[in-house]
């Protein structure tokens, strides 16, 4: 389990149970499928989304079997999207380990993702209400749609901050929202409290995605564990670059005109994004979401889980301030 | 609508409604996504699976809204798998039209398939019982697993008839079974009758897949509307070839040793498969499944829908006798 959770033995224990559910469901006659699912599961991800389900479930009537199963659902859905995203990004590394598509080929990756989707829905239908299945699937459709939006705006130098935020909302924040919301609503929290969790997930997710994107312009391969500036090479322009491009500085526009960026181009782009204040301004926007999240978490009913949620959120979002 | 249904105005009308549900659900802000889903929907597929849902629903208490929605679910699931299969096969044509992956690229095809999966589950959760969502997702996991089996046995000259039949069962027959089963069980047919429909679907599906594979060794590009012998080039050995290989005739084994088959090789392989009786013997096996299906359909409660099912099945399965 990620060291993040060692301070919180109760959550840590629950996440171990969640892992076991996923392991049980990954079991199948194809050992490569099973192996690659287990490998991804054990590759050191933070398991934030399932932890959010567990934590928000604690605000209601905590039924461990249900909470764990729902937590496994959001993690399996997340894993399925990771496997498919890596096909699109042609990523060779994920969390510092070789990706399914790099190791076994794109074909495998397509079907392993599909298999994970189906298993995720199977577990969901086993414990969730029809209502939650509907919310889940609607959210999931929106997530797929945001991925498509991102594909469409590749190499688009006119992509706006607004469009970026919408994409981040669909791509990342929705699943954070869903995780916190599902835990709350399925453990019988009021509609109002469940909605509050949805909003908290949104703000954490937005800050999280922006910070992730900022790290592409400040981190190194080692520190972020995936191909640095990989997005950039794929033509995915994220917030720091979009902001730096706002006044269309010609030296930046000129490099971006190229269809294929060399390593030197990437270094130069990173330098220019910093020069034109893209990183600092992106940080300010992230800060706004972070502060909103803190404020909303503090307004939750007081209990030990609220404190854990607050601490975890701080740990996640204070990485760059 | 496919001309197959013009003889049956009632089914034809229902299938038009099913199409409208899919069209409504394909509606999204991304016009390429919407367009490519509609294109696939209107590319002249037979819509067998949704028709099966409609027909078996008629044996119970027919609720049109529910039956149509369930019919749209199996068709959307089928469409999602087609889009993803075409990525694996690198197919350029599907039903004589350019595939999503050929027209818009693999990346698009991955996400369009995912989007269709989610929409399919969304519609299902809106009308099905939790039981049917579970059966559905279990079946879907098995279908994905069979696709993976197929990937694994590429270029395997020792693949057995038994293994082929298992793969055909998972890849094709399961969804035929599910379609007939869902319609029956969700319209309140008895457990026994619903199970009978499952079995009928299995036998129709098995015969259908075998016949499809036989046509690869007897048809032409024009008559079957997709790249003839495409499977063969991808190293997917189907029943006629597997049977012809049973006694390991050296002239056939030698060509298959090559890793890349030329057009001439394909022509030669097709010739040898016929020479070593692969096509005839495969036809006999198909015939067994076909006869079982007829017998089981005739044992259904007598009504006009039983006759339609029988006629349709005959039309499908008598293509090669």
Automatic annotation (TrEMBL), chains A, B:
The cofactors named for this UniProt entry are: Mg(2+)
Q: Which Gene3D superfamilies match?
A: Farnesyl Diphosphate Synthase
Which UniProt keywords are listed?
Magnesium, Metal-binding, Transferase
| The organism's place on the tree of life at top rank | Bacteria
The family annotation for this protein states: Belongs to the FPP/GGPP synthase family.
Q: What is this protein called?
A: Polyprenyl synthetase family protein
Query: From which source organism is this entry?
Result: Clostridium saudiense
């Amino acid at each position: 389990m990620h060291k993040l959770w060692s301070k919180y033995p109760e959550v840590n224990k629950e996440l171990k149970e969640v892992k076991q559910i996923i392991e049980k469901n990954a079991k199948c006659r194809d050992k490569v499928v099973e192996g690659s699912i287990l490998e991804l599961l054990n590759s050191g991800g933070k398991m934030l989304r399932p932890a959010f389900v567990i934590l928000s479930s604690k605000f209601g009537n905590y039924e461990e079997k249900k909470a764990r199963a729902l937590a496994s659902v959001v993690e399996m859905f997340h894993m399925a999207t990771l496997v498919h995203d890596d096909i699109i990004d042609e990523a060779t590394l994920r969390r510092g380990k070789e990706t399914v598509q790099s190791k076994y080929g794109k074909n495998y990756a397509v079907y392993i993702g599909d298999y994970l989707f189906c298993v995720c829905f199977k577990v969901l239908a086993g414990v969730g209400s029809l209502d939650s299945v509907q919310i889940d699937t609607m959210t999931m459709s929106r997530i797929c749609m945001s991925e498509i939006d991102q594909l469409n705006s590749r190499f688009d130098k006119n992509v706006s901050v607004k469009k970026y935020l919408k994409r981040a909302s669909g791509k990342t924040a929705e699943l954070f929202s869903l995780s916190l919301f599902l835990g709350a609503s399925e453990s019988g929290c009021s509609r109002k409290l469940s909605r509050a969790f949805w909003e908290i997930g949104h703000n954490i997710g937005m800050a999280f995605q922006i910070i992730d994107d900022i790290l592409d312009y400040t981190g190194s391969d080692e520190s972020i564990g995936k191909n640095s500036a990989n997005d950039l090479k794929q033509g995915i322009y994220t917030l720091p670059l979009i902001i730096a491009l706002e006044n269309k500085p010609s030296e930046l526009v000129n490099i971006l005109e190229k269809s294929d960026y060399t390593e030197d181009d990437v270094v130069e782009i990173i330098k220019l994004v910093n020069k034109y204040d893209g990183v600092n301004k992106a940080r300010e926007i992230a800060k706004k979401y972070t502060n909103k999240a803190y404020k909303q978490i503090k307004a939750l009913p007081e209990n030990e889980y609220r404190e854990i949620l607050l601490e975890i959120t701080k740990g996640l979002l204070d990485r760059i301030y």
